[in-house]
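QA checklist item 7 of 12: single-chain prediction sanity check.
[x] sequence parsed
[x] length recorded as 509
[x] structure emitted
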Amino acid sequence: MSTGTSRHDRLMTADIVRFTRRSARRYRRSQSSWSDRFVDAYSWGLGIGVSLTIAASFVLALRNEIASRASTSGSIIRKQWLVLPEPVLWTCLTFVVLLAVGNLARKLGPLAVNGPESSWWLPLPLDRRPMVLPPFLRKVALTAAGSVIAYVPFSMVTAVDRGPLEHVCAALTFGAAAVIAVVLAAAQQLGLLGRWTGRMVTAVILAACSAATLTSSSPWPTAFAAVVAVGLLAVVGTRGGEVPGEELVRGGAVAGHAGASLFMMDSNEVLRALGAGRKKVDGGRAAGFYTSPPRSPLGALIRADIVAFLRLNPPLVPPIMWLAGSIAILLVEGGLPEFVQLAVLVIAGCATASGMGTVARRTAMVPEIDALLPIHAAMVWTSRMLMPCAAMAVWMGTLSGVLVFLGAADPALIGVGAMAGMGMGAGSIRAAIRTQPDWSAPPVETPFGPVPRAQLGSLLRGLDVTILAMIPLMVALYLGYVPPLVAVVQLVFSAGIVLVVALSRPKHA
């Protein structure tokens, strides 16, 4: 194909894209008046302003609290004999966040088209680069801006000795690293990097960028990261039209599904969307469960749930990372306030528990199938809870065992942690079978703007009992020992949560 023909195709494609998006903007503007847009802008601006003010106050207060601490006397580990240098912890945390950005970019597809575009644009025998490049550049720009803004408070809290210019340089370095992560995900879409080669290259480059955020006293690491980001962006941008059509459609479908789920405040659908492309293992992993026939319908269901849990292959890396991260926070040099340490443990527990309800989320999509089983509904949900409760009991028991080893409490904490894990596993099932948000209820006006109270109540279903199950454990860690009353309360809480979830009626997710 000649150069003139290629240029003509690109111009024609650009005209088609421009016409489509101009028509879409004109249609959206026709559906709302200027007064509606002004009220929306005012509400959003007021809410964002109040939220930023509160967040800034919290960051400054936490920064002053950390700066005034000279030792780890306030840690939940009373006699700390193992100390982790702060630079090592914050570098590792930055590296993990960048890896998460790259992993999310691979799932969503930096180069993608939505449903109507895939039906109209992709079949045309024209250059695809004008179709996919502008949205890709917008994603890169939003990623860079969001990363820089998000890293500034993190830098202010974790590096209190830096000056304002050093905070800016560190934030710009992190923003460039986030752009590199997104662009490398696009390079894998193009086939420039293989699956495992791309992951190795991405890990090495992002590790170097994470270390570069520490050297904020010099502008050279920031300049080098920016040059690498721009160079990779130029390479990917020139070949943006070579992405296979099925990859563009896949990325657009996942991004559209996840975006719509976020808009509808349905966390179950978000997890389904992000896990849609995850590779499943074959039945060989659970072949041992088929060596003998089941003796009862309940036994068959329990066996099926165990097999499904194993075949869906819950990833081991996130629970291990959350476990290592929560322990590292407790060992950081200088110590963090107790409420921060306890909050990190709660967040780690909730994040780990959320990944254990995969089977329940799948079956809750069609609850009528469970109604056909010749078993009481309570037995069905009890079977669903077995593996999540066992997995979370092991995770929480391991966490509690490490805390006992470090001197946070007496060995009875391990039993309390295992019981808390059982309640948390039941909480993941409660979240998986939650009802859809009720959009008929009007929002409530607050200083933060309109708040959808009914929708938030549905969103927090499951998370509430997960946090409730951890309260006795957190009390024991705060006290430094396990009183008998705390162990009894933990047993009552966990047993009550399991009973409530078992008696829940099947509901649409």
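[x] summary fact logged: Residues 79-263 form one domain.
[ ] second reviewer sign-off
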